[in-house]
Design brief:
heterodimer; A: alpha+beta; three-stranded antiparallel β-sheet; B: three-stranded antiparallel β-sheet; 6 strands
Amino acid sequence: MKEFSFSGLGTIWRITLDSLELKDDAKKAILYFVKEFEASFSRFLPNSETNSFKKSLAGKYKISKEFAFLLSEANSLRTLTKCVYDPAVGGLLEMAGYDDKYRMKPLSNIKEFILPKWTVDGDIISIDGPIAFDLGGIGKGYCIDQVSNILRSFDYKYFLVDAGGDMFATAKEGGAPWRVAIEYPGKPDLAAGVINLKNQGLAVSDSFRRRWGKWHHLLNPQLKRPIEAVVGVVAVADNAFKADCMTSALFFSNDTQYATIARFYNASYLVFNSDGKTNVSSNWKGELF
Amino acid sequence: MNNRRNVLILGIAVLIIVLVYYRDDLIVFFKQSAEISPTTNSLDVVLPGELSAVARYNVPGGEGVLRFILAVDNSGFITNVMTEDVLNPNASNEKLVKFSEGLLLTIKGKKLSDLKEVDRVGTSSLTTKAFNSALTELKAKL
């Protein structure tokens, strides 16, 4: 197997091809796309499109087709989670200290944060004032799928695209699946289980890695505090974007909503709760330890 | 425990088959029953949006009776499943598991180093150097 590794979206990407080596033109195309995507949608880059409304007045604005698509999907996720997930949470994350300067200290007036209102219609966004978007819950999955599309456009058929633990995998040449262990949330030397991926996306998220004091990066914008009932989630779906959306939904919803959300994304999932119990979807196909 | 578990699985399978087959009728039923005031003291009354069935089974020393309660949304999909020990409704029973769509398990985990033939490990993304540096600096100030 041949591997191509690079940095992007704040993590290490590893693209593995089963039997072939990635040609230079394909590498360039992938690097270019990921760099452009990060420039457009990173919350930590001041000139990104997601940061372009931080000082805007209320009104309607034209946005790029890609941003419009992502916000439209984010709106679906917002509806599914009854508005607990909302990409307009960027301002709250900054007030909590997770800003581009990594202050790592919440502001004393964080409880005064008011979640901005927004809607999207085609490529027109309507906002009620300044707004900072964070697409951290869905952007990487989308980017993984676009990289996979680039590989297919260069006629690569058997590959695994791993972006820091979230991934999409085709079959291996010969038809076998890729065998993926799932890290136990908060216990990096343990595996919670193993799953076979074949033309599927996998997303994994937990609240342990991006933690500072009592805070971490998964905040309830209505309660203005970190989510603590759930500590880790895993999702498998038809592609990496759906899996990424599903993990975000699982953190920002409760167990009475999981079934509806899983049907929407056609996903299977694990939810690791803070009490030590794990919700396992009825369609989960992996092995658990 | 195995006998009760088998009854549990069989009861749920029967209810699911009933729900799928009579889905359209059930939607009409739930709409009509929206006016009914629920009571909780009778085993025969079904609360709006819920279906229940009682299963009896033999165990050494007597008989067990389990009530299966399925919460069903307006589209006929099961949103929650509960079981009740009918003969001991007030007794807490760790073996009766409430689950919404799947199972609630305790996963112990296995050492990654003991796993064989793993192509990848799915993890949450590692933090960046900038994040780690800021965190180190923050901890030093505490």
